[in-house]
Amino acid sequence: MAFKFEKLKVWQKALDLADEIDKMTKTFPKDEVYVLTSQAKRAADSISMNIAEGSTGQSNPEFKRFLGYALRSNIEVVNCLHLAIRRNYITEEIFQKHYKSCEEILVMISALIKSLN
């Protein structure tokens, strides 16, 4: 692996979540394509993108700043999950599965931020 971020388990987990959110949103109603579908996918993709962007050739404070963006994108995905379940687009089982992944990513990003102090 040529890039530092490719070795990070949190980046790999964020990629997995982005794939899962992409699959999930394919089941949403067509009238959500430019609204919740787009927002959920962009937020999920943003997690791994910010981890990658911040990790390469950046100082620790700069990397921490990008990890903060990734953390906020992760929380945005959680909010999208809440909207999706309230609108009956997903089941409780799907909600819990992705919510758990978001919790794990939150813990991993937080630990990585602490390790950079």
From TrEMBL:
InterPro entries: 23S_rRNA-intervening_sequence (IPR012657), 23S_rRNA_IVS_sf (IPR036583). PANTHER family: FOUR HELIX BUNDLE PROTEIN (PTHR38471). It holds the Pfam family 23S_rRNA_IVP. It comes from the Bacteria. This is Four helix bundle protein.
